[in-house]
Specification:
Elements: E1 5-9, H1 12-23, E2 26-30, E3 35-39, E4 45-49, E5 74-77, H2 81-91, E6 94-101, E7 105-111, E8 117-123
Parallel strand pairs: 1-4, 5-8
Antiparallel strand pairs: 2-3, 3-4, 6-7, 7-8
Helix pairs in contact: 1-2
Length: about 130
């Protein structure tokens, strides 16, 4: 089974610039005028342009690009968390929780310019195997 990640954004050009600049992703394909495929992560990421206020679900929930919370978010595993944080911040990310160190690795919590949260993770030692049972 293949996993595809989709991120709704209000401005496709700005979002493409952000994710390529912040995380070193690259444009794969442009899918019509409203979607861009980004490559360079373990799964393709699709940026989907949808205006703020447009209906997002069958329950008439609408899209809001102010900072919001969703229990599903992306974690990007990076080799150097300081360098990755600096690149993300320079591209327009907001740091929400500074880098914290755990036995399994280091994590920083950020948000993109469209209100979507994401984390940067640098594994240490044996990664999650340090705490696996």
């Amino acid at each position: 089974m293949q996993l595809l990640a989709n991120i709704d954004v209000e401005d496709l050009v700005a979002a493409t610039d952000f994710y390529c600049g912040a995380l070193g992703l690259r444009v794969g394909r442009r899918l019509g005028g409203g979607a861009v495929e980004l490559l360079g992560a373990s799964s393709p990421i699709y940026l989907l342009q949808n205006p703020a206020g447009s209906v997002a679900t069958g329950t008439a929930a609408t899209r809001d690009y102010g900072r919001h919370w969703t229990p599903v978010h992306l974690d990007f595993v990076v080799p150097d968390i300081e360098r990755a944080c600096a690149a993300a911040l320079a591209a327009g990310a907001q740091l929400e929780r500074a880098v914290r160190t755990h036995v399994w690795g280091r994590i920083a919590v950020l948000s993109d310019p469209f209100g979507n949260g994401f984390c940067l993770i640098q594994f240490l030692n044996r990664g999650y195997d340090e705490i696996a049972t």
